[in-house]
User: Which sequence fits this backbone?
């Protein structure tokens, strides 16, 4: 390998590391936006599980023993005070926000699980889709589902193999 090629590869490696760090920040911000600042903090192990940290697609994670499971706080007492009249609607508003957070989380988990089933790297898929999303029309979105993305990747790989041989 020539020194010029080695320098090119080192520069490309540095650029990819920088891009990787930026994408990790964006995923962190996305998670904060979906789950909110006041919600449960996400353990790095949860994020690793979410993004498929080494697990094979379609395989269930191993169960966690009771000693390793995170401890939950005790539930508040069932006796609750009535809110003052000027704050009566805030409880309903808080419940709606929690439902929306749950729906957003379910959507994100569904997308990631579909990526795993299609043997796609969820991080790479989300990176590409989130960069293309602002320019897509409603009719084009169906072309960016995990299944369509997997087909497109498969076709690109076969085309590259044909050109190489």
Assistant:
């Amino acid at each position: 390998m020539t020194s010029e090629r080695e320098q090119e590869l080192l520069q490309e490696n540095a650029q990819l590391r920088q891009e990787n760090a930026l994408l990790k920040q964006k995923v962190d911000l996305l998670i904060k936006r979906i789950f909110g600042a006041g919600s449960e903090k996400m353990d790095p192990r949860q994020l690793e599980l979410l993004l498929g940290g080494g697990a094979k697609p379609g395989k269930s994670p191993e169960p966690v023993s009771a000693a390793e499971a995170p401890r939950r706080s005790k539930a508040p007492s069932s006796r609750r005070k009535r809110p003052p009249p000027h704050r009566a609607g805030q409880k309903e508003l808080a419940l709606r926000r929690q439902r929306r957070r749950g729906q957003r989380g379910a959507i994100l988990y569904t997308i990631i699980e579909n990526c795993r089933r299609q043997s796609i790297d969820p991080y790479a898929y989300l990176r590409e889709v989130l960069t293309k999303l602002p320019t897509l029309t409603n009719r084009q979105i169906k072309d960016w589902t995990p299944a369509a993305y997997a087909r497109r990747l498969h076709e690109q790989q076969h085309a590259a193999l044909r050109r190489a041989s």
User: Anything to note?
Assistant: Helices lie at 3-35, 44-50, 88-117, 122-132, 146-164. The mean pLDDT is 76.
